[in-house]
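To start, one record:
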Amino acid sequence: MTVPDRPGDVWDQRVAAGLAFLRRRLAGEYEVDEFGFDPDLTEGVFLPVLRALYREWFRTEVSGVEHLPVDGAGLVVGNHSGTVALDAAVLTAILHDEHPRHRHLRLLSADLVFRLPFLSELTRKFGGTVACNPDAERLLGGGELVGVFPEGFKGVGKPYSQRYKLQRFGRGGFVSAAIRTGSPIVPVAIVGAEETYPMLANIAPLARMLGLPYFPVTPTFPWLGPLGLVPLPSKWLIEFCPPIPTTQFADHADDPLVVFNLADQVRETIQQALHRLLDRRPDPFGR
């Protein structure tokens, strides 16, 4: 019979892990890859924070993890929403924790992220890179799991009245990258992010002045100041859908019709999964 850890033992383990992390950082005993990804910092700092957020605050339920590649490349394509892109960070933490081999999801992020000094460095260390085909193909060619949100700011910055209605997927560059590398596409549907910061209005003139894609007005921001940045405790459901193979399209990566049709198949798969998950979650803030 296994004896459960006592509370004191758990805290001792956490303190020991924290001290070991500090020792590695001070001694420089960690590696950073060519994109700036720092697995040691990610697992020691970023993931524990996100883990508490998705488990305790959002009470997240996950299904379909068996559809993720056990090893080798894969392109994970999700819906984007919520005013602040928490869904991308949460998805990264969940995939790491739920995957049998605890793989890291390498996110493709918008150019704006890399124009902001502090956020740019943070994103690189968390495993992100610019959302462009060359970087996507290099990562997929290296056997990584890559995450992309084709709606971009159109999805994150849409009004609450348009919640869970997928926006246009752009030109389908993510499909071309998957075809060129022979990587399967795994659609993922995320329910819950729309309610974390419901956008009631967008102050467009202020957004233009600040060089932002939008300036949101939510039930708590800007009325509560910094407290308005605390996400509402919505109930999250995440479903990884069956993978869509791309190897049969190997000679058609530059064919606009093939790319468009495959992108539309991914989009429709995610939209249908969103409908299923919403039926399972009648109360956005229930248990």
Notes: The two ends are 32 Å apart (CA to CA).
